[in-house]
Amino acid sequence: xxxxxxxxxxxxxxxxxxxxxxxxxxxxxxxxxxxxxxxxxxxxxxxxxxxxxxxxxxxxxxxxxxxxxxxxxxxxxxxxxxxxxxxxxxxxxxxxxxxxxxxxxxxxxxxxxxxxxxxxxxxxxxxxxxxxxxxxxxxxxxxxxxxxxxxxxxxxxxxxxxxxxxxxxxxxxxxxxxxxxxxxxxxxxxxxxxxxxxxxxxxxxxxxxxxxxxxxxxxxxxxxxxxxxxxxxxxxxxxxxxxxxxxxxxxxxxxxxxxxxxxxxxxxxxxxxxxxxxxxxxxxxxxxxxxxxxxxxxxxxxxxxxxxxxxxxxxxxxxxxxxxxxxxxxxxxxxxxxxxxxxxxxxxxxxxxxxxxxxxxxxxxxxxxxxxxxxxxxxxxxxxxxxxxxxxxxxxxxxxxxxxxxxxxxxxxxxxxxxxxxxxxxxxxxxxxxxxxxxxxxxxxxxxxxxxxxxxxxxxxxxxxxxxxxxxxxxxxxxxxxxxxxxxxxxxxxxxxxxxxxxxxxxxxxxxxxxxxxxxxxxxxxxxxxxxxxxxxxxxxxxxxxxxxxxxxxxxxxxxxxxxxxxxxxxxxxxxxxxxxxxxxxxxxxxxxxxxxxxxxxxxxxxxxxxxxxxxxxxxxxxxxxxxxxxxxxxxxxxxxxxxxxxxxxxxxxxxxxxxxxxxxxxxxxxxxxxxxxxxxxxxxxxxxxxxxxxxxxxxxxxxxxxxxxxxxxxxxxxxxxxxxxxxxxxxxxxxxxxxxxxxxxxxxxxxxxxxxxxxxxxxxxxxxxxxxxxxxxxxxxxxxxxxxxxxxxxxxxxxxxxxxxxxxxxxxxxxxxxxxxxxxxxxxxxxxxxxxxxxxxxxxxxxxxxxxxxxxxxxxxxxxxxxxxxxxxxxxxxxxxxxxxxxxxxxxxxxxxxxxxxxxxxxxxxxxxxxxxxxxxxxxxxxxxxxxxxxxxxxxxxxxxxxxxxxxxxxxxxxxxxxxxxxxxxxxxxxxxxxxxxxxxxxxxxxxxxxx
Length: 997
Known about the structure:
The chain is mostly beta strands. The radius of gyration is 68 Å and the shape is elongated.
């Protein structure tokens, strides 16, 4: 029977399922032959008969249980046409209320995205039957997720309630529906019991803060206040409560201080609130502010925070202005206009805005009240960036009458562009402006009266402003428009341009090359502009220069009575002396300019004593001819004749060296000093123990390998005397140890040149060392007896009984032997003409010697062999005459009676002769001269055409009627070699010449 149980408060239709529910068919015979079917069935539940029993099929009947049947289970009995059947306990009925579930679903109206929430579910069985196997299902739309839901138990008894709490999670924003679906079975009839409930939940975003910041302003000055604005927006769906902005942290190279922060504010969902933070700048540099805004979620109470950072704020040192005058002319003339400028500097970093000078134009104050200045205002105001200077300029026009003095005064005002703070620069006064007379130029051109052919000379233009205001941009020019000589401008002017102050002088120089002998005219011009009003100024000047092969650089520099002088270099100056009385000399620059007299002082020998009884020293003279003995006219040892005055470099130190002469007795001292002043004090070296008897005067000197070799003339039996000084004196003097610090090299024992030689003795009554030189690291020396050379570069005195370490170098040519060397009895006041070999010179790897014979002069040249020594056979006669005595070297001029100069520069060999008609000079034109054609004279003429068609260098007598050469040597200045010589007639003051290089 189905159902097997049912609530019967009303009729219940049921199905009865079985078998053999067969109806009975009966055919009527007769009466038309019809068939009757009996399908009536009756059914009973216990004693209660079911209603409306209907046959449906052989296996199924339907029926209605009448209302009110309660209890059971009842047996079922079915009665049909064919019989009956029963089913035990087939149906139970009840008139109670069936089981029913009442439910409630409670969910929060809003749930924050990403959070979980509880949902309350209440189930109540409102029926009178239990609900068995209850199930509870919580369904959610997308956006919500059911995290958890407990079960309802095994059954829900009638009238009982179950409270369940579910957990949901919000996953996406928006509204979502929750569905509660509760089901179960009625414990009585097994029917399904269910209920559905719905709730709507809004998934919302939590309170979420965003911040926008604005630094106001972003460029500030130190000390300036700042308003840091932070606008905080709640981007969530939930209110943010008590939102507070923290005090920002300050970082960066600059400095700032936060003064106050605003109070907290609630920020509704979707709303914004603005916060203002007060701060001020304290030091320059970049400043960064960083903080946070924090509040709480109105639903969850959870904190919500956002970081707040402000854009960089640049803090600058506050603008600060100061004023100073930039250009104010020191002088101005009435009627002239000039520009004066005032610089206003902003020493801060912030921009100084609207800067203007005050007053504009500046005020003017006059010292005497007679002068005035007028001007129009300068363009203003202007902005001045930090660290910059703006220049305000006025054009003033001077009035009144000189002399007067004017002063300008002005300051400035402005404002700090960041903070607006007012700025002020105090008024400053300008340098005084002298009101003077207008500028006027005067020029003079100076150049040497003479210049050497092939040499350079300097032309100097001196320009003077005789007015008071000065001339700017002086620009000079130099031309050589005419002349019989020739020259060219090599460089200049130096400086190329120059500003000239009023009442002052400036000089411009040019370097010129003298190219052709003769006179040239130099013309110079200069132009510029007035220092105040810019009007043109100009001047011109001229000078004449005579170009030749020899230049007179000094004429009688020691007076007419000093007819002789040595010439040499000491510390970059040309020294000339000694004076006739032996007390000093004069020194000049290489071109003969800037003469400076100098005095000589000789310290007395307090150890060994001096022969001069007039004093213990110091002595003002090394003696002079015919001086009175035992007076300060004579030298420390009563030296009474001119000896030797020279210089040399020993161990890198320049020394002045002097040695005198005596007419009787012997010399005892030589003197030296390193004093480069105009009053040098000489220290002595006591040499008496190294000198032979009757040593009278000093004839030659050679500095070689830091040793001083001194040749002396004398009349004693052991003559001549040759001494090497190995140690220079210390102040006040020294007594060098004989054989150690000073040695007599006993040249008197050397064959040919000495009086005590074993062979070929020199028997001349007065003998000396005429000249000496170094060649191929050996010493060569000569006198009337011939030429010898040392065998080492440090010859020593010979041991007892041994031959001195010297070798004969005298030419063995018959031409040499055919002539006798000149001799002299002079022991002091010697000149080159008194010597048989006045000079030797090394040039181009060869050694040259000048010889005076009783017949006339000879020139000899040695071409050394492989051993680099000059042996007798290595010598040949140089430049022999083509006319007259061909055994002489006179350049065919018989009046060239003495050769008195032989000197070599790096490029030329020079030879000079005494000549009664005027001294004569030639120089080589090739590197290895041998004949007269290898020499040149005046203006480069061929010396083989002398004397008729080729005069000597500088002309005969050097244009000064000089007949005798007193001393000559090569000196080097500015990297160039020059030959300097002293010359004259011997009856008037000597003259000094420089020869063409």
